[in-house]
Amino acid sequence: MLSDILVNFTHSAVVVFGLLTLLWAISVAVKDASLIDIFWGFGFLVVAVVCLYLADVKTPYLWLLATMPIAWGIRLSLYLAKRNLGHGEDKRYVAMRKRAEKKGMSELAWRIRTLFTVYFGQGLLIMIVSAPIWVAMATGYEQHIWSERIGDDQVIFSESIKSKIGILAILGALLWLIGFLFEAVGDWQLTKFMKKNKNYDGPKEDKPVLDTGLWKYTRHPNYFGNACMWWGIWLVACQAPWGWTTIFAPLIMTFLLTRVSGRDLLEREMKKRKNYRDYVERTSGFFPMLPK
């Protein structure tokens, strides 16, 4: 069992970090470190595809477990590619580069550093958060082989143990679907809103705030949906032996979405606007609730 888990982990890591190295080389050539943002969802897709490929027997349970990150990875990568490509390097990375240059670091040196801090750092997070995938995909189907002596003959026996789509997998899949819809619909509503208000040139304080649709009930339906998906994937993984031990993965993802690179980081600047402060007063910050 442990050897199968290690095989899934090491093979997935080699492919993920190999692709990240290639993407980093492209980012250096086009001088756009923000290409890494598009890879985030795609990285989990890669882990799922590699683990499914390595499975000797592809049972319905393994297909279910792999399909969830694959579907999410495709949708998120296409969405981010459409939103980001052609608009130059994201301002966050521009600010990081300028701070490094002020400290005497050349642009080339900074871009080399991004390989280890930004690209490989994200690769490490992908491998940690995807633990429910590479653990459950390795233990969801096992074949035990043993031998016994019967008379003068040595007889070899084998037994296949398969994780079936039970109640935990069904509940997890439903939670994942809810999360997927929250993220997809939330992103769609945000795209429409930004397109409608892209030519706004009035006072910053009066800049419109999206407070309709899903955004009426939570300030971050896409982040809430993302968290739901990873808790759903973890529940599906719990159907397999040792899947429950990967609970750290959805905990880390939820922490990232609410405290690190998600809600808190995004709202740090937006809360300077009165309109947004009013929106904060009446709208839940994460879990969907009726507005005050």
Written account of the structure:
It is built from eleven helices and two strands, in the order ααααααββααααα. Helix 8 packs antiparallel against helix 9. The N and C termini lie far apart (about 50 Å). The protein has one domain (about 1-280). The chain has a two-stranded antiparallel ribbon with strand order 1-2. The chain is mainly alpha-helical and about 290 residues long.
Question: Uncertain runs with pLDDT below 50, 5 residues or more?
Answer: none
The geometry reads as globular
Number of helical elements: 11
What order do the strands of the largest sheet run in, or round the barrel if closed? 1-2
Rg (CA only): 23 Å
Mean pLDDT: 90
Q: Biggest β-sheet: count, sense, barrel?
A: 2 strands, antiparallel
Report the helical percentage.
55-70%
End-to-end Cα distance, whole Å, is 51 Å
Any idea how many domains? 1
SSE sequence, one letter per element: HHHHHHEEHHHHH
Strand content bin: 5-15%
Q: By helix and strand content, what is the structural category?
A: mainly alpha
* DSSP strand tally: 2
In oligomeric terms, what are we looking at? Answer: single chain
